[in-house]
Every structure is written in C-alpha cells, then in structure tokens.
Amino acid sequence: MNNIDLIKYWFESSEDDYETMKVLYNSKRNTWCLFIGHLVIEKLLKGLYAKNNPENPVTPKIHNLILLSQKANLEVPAEIREKIQVINTFNISARYDDYKKSFDQKCTDEYTLEQVNNIEEVRKWLKEQ
C-alpha cells in the first residue's frame, strides 16, 4: 500500500470506531466506549504517520499514543497532549483483567462523558492536521 491508501485506510477505520464508541456510550458500556475511543485516536495518528512519512508510510505496530504522535512528526499543543496522555491509559486499563476492575469503577457516567468529550476534541484537532 502506498501512503495515500494507508491514510484512507486508517481514517476510515477510525471513523468506524468512532461510530462504535458512540453506540457503546449510549448503551452505557463505559469501559469499552473509552477503549474504542483510544482506537479512534490511535488510528488517526497512524493515518497522520502515513501522511507525514510518505517514504515509509507503514505505521509502527505500537499502541502508545504519545509515541505515535512523535513518530507522526506532530507538534501537539500542551492542552491536546494532556488529553492524549489520559486517553493513552484506556488501552491498558480496558484490555487486561487486573486493570479492568479498577477501570470499571473509575468509568462513571460523568467520567466517561468527560473523556468522550476529550476524545472528540483530540479527534477534531487531529483531523485538522
């Protein structure tokens, strides 16, 4: 795949996950909503990596959003970077059973709404890049 194909692939996949995140939010599946929200941001970052690295557009097989934003050569404003750092924790917290129980307790409706709003803000910023 060339970088144009990869950009399209990652952005479309992110959009599908965004729709899934909204369904999970509306059905109060808070833990999974935020886990998928992490994927929304991860896939946008991978699309931006492909865009900003046309000579080698194949994205690294990592899930760390901070590292992906660096590898995508993005100048991330502090406010967005702080939100990304929180969103980054949703991958581990929702994935592994030993973290999942405490993450479930943290994912109140209020916390989930706050984080969905943060995901949407980061998503909007990334799409503008």
How would you describe this structure in keywords?
6 helices; globular; mainly alpha; 129 residues; Four Helix Bundle (Hemerythrin (Met), subunit A); single chain
Structure description:
- This protein is globular.
- It has one domain: Four Helix Bundle (Hemerythrin (Met), subunit A), CATH 1.20.120.
- With 129 residues, the protein is mainly α.
> In DSSP terms, counting alpha (H) and pi (I) runs of 4 or more, how many helices?
6
Report the sheet with the most strands, covering strand number, pairing sense and barrel closure.
Answer: none
SSE series: HHHHHH
| CATH fold naming | Four Helix Bundle (Hemerythrin (Met), subunit A)
Fraction of residues in helix: over 70%
In short:
By secondary structure, the protein is an all-alpha fold. It has a single domain (3-127), classed as Nucleotidyltransferases  domain 2 (Four Helix Bundle (Hemerythrin (Met), subunit A)). It has six helices and no strands.
Spell out the blueprint of helices and strands.
Layout: H1 3-26, H2 30-52, H3 65-71, H4 78-95, H5 97-106, H6 109-127
